[in-house]
Amino acid sequence: MSTTFDLDGQPVPFQPGDTVIAAATRAGHTIPHLCWDPRLGPSGACRLCTVEVNGRPAAACTTRALAGLRVACQTEPLQQRRRQLLQMMFVEGNHFCPSCEKSGGCALQSAAYAAGMTGPQWEEFYPQRAVDASHPALWLDTNRCILCKLCVRASTELDGKGVFAIGGHGIHTHLIVHSPSGRLADSAIAATDEAAQICPVGAILPKRRGFAVPIGERPQDTP
Ligand code: SF4
Ligand code: SF4
Ligand code: FES
């Protein structure tokens, strides 16, 4: 049985068990998101998918679709909140897009363009984080990590390895590699793992493939 909820004035059909974002995406709508992947259980880590459900803010990736819900996504107050959230993600790490291999194919960069984000209004944190280049096939650069937990969930739910975890609190929250040394080379990860390929930003990258696609032909170069 399919029934509908309202998204910005449009009826959206859903199936039992759907989240708002799953049903909306299937119906061809775009709700901004960074930590949602339909193959994985919901996490609610990034909050970029926040919409208004019956007038109250809620994450579209953790909210079950129900008949008759009134969901607002494309309102100016929500867009403003998204721009602020994205600005926080940029200042919390070290993001230098012109020199980043992920540029043009990065979900954070793309979301910032789509939301109309310009310069951050807060001071940059410039945290000091070491790059882990120990693995023969992968880079781990947590300067660009937005703590979306996609690699954590993919490694556990899809690869069955549990290579990554999130540790610490508040501003000290960070990505942890499960290995005796804490380095990627000593973990069970392989370059073919889903966890090695799912990072939406340039934090987990394959080696020897940087800048392989010319500017103008990268996934997000076209409007
Ligand atoms: Fe820019 Fe994305 Fe690279 Fe960060 S990860 S520097 S936002 S391209
Ligand atoms: Fe998300 Fe990438 Fe950080 Fe993993 S390394 S938590 S996938 S941003
Ligand atoms: Fe919903 Fe990240 S996509 S909280």
From TrEMBL:
**Alphabetical UniProt keywords:** 4Fe-4S, Iron, Iron-sulfur, Metal-binding
Instruction: Mention any one GO cellular component term assigned to this protein in its UniProt record.
Output: membrane
Highest taxon of the lineage: Bacteria
Is this entry keyworded Methyltransferase?
no
The keyword Cytoplasm is assigned to this record: no
Cofactors: [4Fe-4S] cluster
Q: Name one GO biological process term.
A: ATP synthesis coupled electron transport
Question: Can you give the residue ranges of the 2Fe-2S ferredoxin-type domain?
Answer: 1-77
Cross-referenced InterPro entries, in alphabetical order?
2Fe-2S_ferredoxin-like_sf (IPR036010), 2Fe-2S_ferredoxin-type (IPR001041), NAD-red_Hydgase_HoxS_gsu (IPR016214), NADH_UbQ_OxRdtase_75kDa_su_CS (IPR000283), NADH_UbQ_OxRdtase_Gsu_4Fe4S-bd (IPR019574)
One GO molecular function term of this record is: NADH dehydrogenase (ubiquinone) activity
Q: What Pfam families does UniProt report for this protein, alphabetically?
A: Fer2_4 (PF13510), Fer4_15 (PF13459), NADH-G_4Fe-4S_3 (PF10588)
| Domain (4Fe-4S His(Cys)3-ligated-type): residue spans on this chain | 77-116
Per the record, the similarity remark reads:
Belongs to the complex I 75 kDa subunit family.
Protein name (database record): (2Fe-2S)-binding protein
Instruction: State the organism named in the record.
Output: Ideonella aquatica
